[in-house]
Amino acid sequence: MCARPPRPSAGHRTNFCARSSKQRSQRLTNRITQNRHKHAGFPVTKTLDDFKVQISSVPKPTFDYLVSLEWVSAEENLILVGPAGTGKSHLLVGLGHAAVHAGLRVRYFAASDLVETLYRGIAENSVGKVIDGLLRADLVILDELGFAPLDLTGTQLRFRFIAAAYERRPLGIASHWPFDQWLDASFLSQRRRHR
User: Which of 82, 74, 72 is nearest to 107 (CA)?
Assistant: First the structure.
């Protein structure tokens, strides 16, 4: 005959239930984070751990402030300007991943992809709804601003999006164009097309 195992005590059942609940909660949190990563649309996985602060032009105190994500909660914008290959995209994507892990909703766009999305909104007569939907994110990242030339409508759509985000959502922007040339860069392609 086999001896019957002792019945678990009430304390044991409580501990088991607490562990089980904690595991379910962790699985749910992991699933939400995975879904937020997928919805963000990052082109690659780049982390802040892989970003080489010591060889970048970003001062360590500035990097620490960016990593804290205080600028996101303060609804401040981040603009990274510099030549190609200096780590702007890496830093933006890394900050985006960190924001997702902090429980924030993030959307990533190459600037040309954002304009394409807004063009589809024009085609469906819903560009305002598209912009409002994109601005539901806690942080919107626009990478490669100025890499692809835009026509007049594309320039206006990009402006409309940025104006709609103003004081509503923080933007993280990376561009190889110096800030004082943004207007010229936006309209350069238009002048070429209208000649």
Answer: 72
Return all residues near 177 (Cβ < 8 A) that are at least 6 apart.
81, 145, 146, 185
Angle between helices 127-134 and 152-165 (to 10 degrees): 50
Per residue in 99-122, pLDDT (tens digit) is 999 999 999 999 999 999 999 999
The CATH number of the structural domain formed by 41-193 is: 3.40.50.300
Res. 25: pLDDT tops 60: yes
Nearest to 103 by CA among 18, 28, 20: 28
Would you place residue 30 in the very low, low, confident or very high pLDDT band (cuts 50, 70, 90)? confident
Distance CA 168, CA 3 (A): 67
